[in-house]
Amino acid sequence: MLVNMSKVEQGVKGIIVRDKNFLVLKQVVDGNTFFSLPGGRIESDNQETELKREIKEETGLEVEVKEFVGEWSFSRSNGSVTRLETYKCVPLSEKISHEDTEKYEDIKEVLWLSREEFLEGGYTDNKSLIEVIKKVEI
């Protein structure tokens, strides 16, 4: 499949690690349920600042960004591609608040999953995301 490079969007995602688990968001968009890492499109060149902002908006968590762990991508039905640089993060607090985000982010649930639960539970079929999850130290 040819990709129109003018339709490539950049984003950042965080693998927030706590107690050998990581945080996964359950979202429902247009009646479709999917599971994702917190993060989103970037609006500036400072990826760490953008990632912290997105995580705070989606989960209420303040995080420390530890290290870059990989890049993955997905295609949309309109032909655009989103490339996501992904970073390992640790939470600086315990309190998660996603209730306010249900209105605009369609977040229905926040899950803490082990790598095995995520990989064996059918949470995604995105091969590039699976490879990033496999290699990050959790």
Short account of what is shown:
This protein is α+β, with helices and mostly antiparallel strands and 138 residues long. 23% of the residues lie in helices and 43% in strands.
How would you describe this protein?
The protein is an alpha+beta fold. The protein has a single domain (5-135), classed as Nucleoside Triphosphate Pyrophosphohydrolase (Alpha-Beta Complex), CATH 3.90.79. The chain is built from 4 helices and 7 strands, in the order ββββαββαβαα. The protein has helices at residues 47-59, 102-105, 115-120, 127-135; strands at residues 8-18, 21-29, 32-36, 39-41, 63-75, 81-91, 107-113. Strands 1, 2, 3, 4, 5, 6 and 7 form a 7-stranded mixed β-sheet that branches. It is globular and about 40 Å long. The relative contact order is 0.27.
Q: By CATH's scheme, which homologous superfamily applies? A: Nucleoside Triphosphate Pyrophosphohydrolase
Strand content: 35-45%
Distance between the termini: 34 Å
Summarize the amount of helix as a percent range: 10-25%
Order of helices and strands: EEEEHEEHEHH
Number of domains: 1
CATH topology: Nucleoside Triphosphate Pyrophosphohydrolase
Mean pLDDT: 88
CATH architecture: Alpha-Beta Complex
What's the shape?
globular
Unreliable segments of 5+ consecutive residues: none
Q: Major sheet, described briefly?
A: 7 strands, mixed
What class would the helix/strand composition place it in? alpha+beta
What's the level 1 CATH class?
A: Alpha Beta
